[in-house]
Amino acid sequence: MTVIAPDKPQVSTDPLDLEAINPMLESQDPAGICRWASAQFGGELVMTSSFGAESALLLHLATRVKPDIKVIMIDTGYLFPETWQHMEALRRRLDLNVWVYRTKNDPIAWLGQNGEGNASWRNDVDRCCNTNKNEPMERAMAELRPSAWLRGIRRNQADTRKEKPFVEWSKRYRCYAVSPLLNWSTRDIYLYMKQNELPYHPLYEKGYLSIGCNPESCTRAVKPGEDPRAGRWSGTDKIECGINVNSNSLDSAGL
Ligand code: SF4
């Protein structure tokens, strides 16, 4: 079942003028956009993190301006053990305020109940993502009811992200989505990570440049020259898990 956030009072006295704000933010670096978001939304700003390949970057940027920001982590039941290790290491290093939202399903039982006989492969990735990833995310946003949410998407990651603005209204979560990293390249990220001695996910050096769940159907190492996200749902036309799709999971194409 999809959980929709109930109507809530507007925290901002007026809706944001996105046509004015987005061009202004184009000239800001990610730290400047995080500062703007913290000043604009205060305690009602949260962030999501997959604790994936380069997640330390946005966690570091966000906690420089808002040390106690709530960090939403979605536990599908199928994450790599290394992801949990990475989360714990970053939680200690950055003193993170992590809020884990878990699938309601027992991961092994769910596979058996849904005809998924091979734990290292998903036949129906859309059904699995919808139930085990999108539902906890929607539950998190319905419970926490933030005014805005920081996320780590970049324009050069996928065609679905090329036209994204820095700030947009999310009808699905009924809050603003703020994307400070939109214009950064892999090299920009590398330089920031190096300068601040931030760790990549432990699987990064093994060729896992974008990291989600551990079935091979969902995350594999990429080969030299491949797009960093080529290892996600490889061999299918699926690009997004659905968390960053700006509509209800039940009516999102491809979900
Ligand atoms: S990424 Fe794969 S294992 Fe994870 S929720 Fe989606 S289909 Fe399931």
Automatic annotation (TrEMBL):
GO terms for molecular function: 4 iron, 4 sulfur cluster binding; adenylyl-sulfate reductase (thioredoxin) activity; metal ion binding; phosphoadenylyl-sulfate reductase (thioredoxin) activity. It catalyses: [thioredoxin]-disulfide + sulfite + AMP + 2 H(+) = adenosine 5'-phosphosulfate + [thioredoxin]-dithiol. It is an enzyme of class 1 (oxidoreductase). SUPFAM superfamilies: Adenine nucleotide alpha hydrolases-like. It is found in: Cytoplasm. One of its GO terms (biological process) is hydrogen sulfide biosynthetic process. One of its GO terms (cellular component) is cytoplasm. Coiled coil: none annotated. It comes from the Bacteria. CDD domains: PAPS_reductase. Residues 45-216 form the Phosphoadenosine phosphosulphate reductase domain. Pathway: Sulfur metabolism; hydrogen sulfide biosynthesis; sulfite from sulfate. The active site is at 241 (nucleophile). Keywords: Cytoplasm, Iron, Iron-sulfur, Metal-binding, Oxidoreductase. Belongs to the PAPS reductase family. CysH subfamily. This is Adenosine 5'-phosphosulfate reductase. It comes from Humisphaera borealis. The gene is cysH.
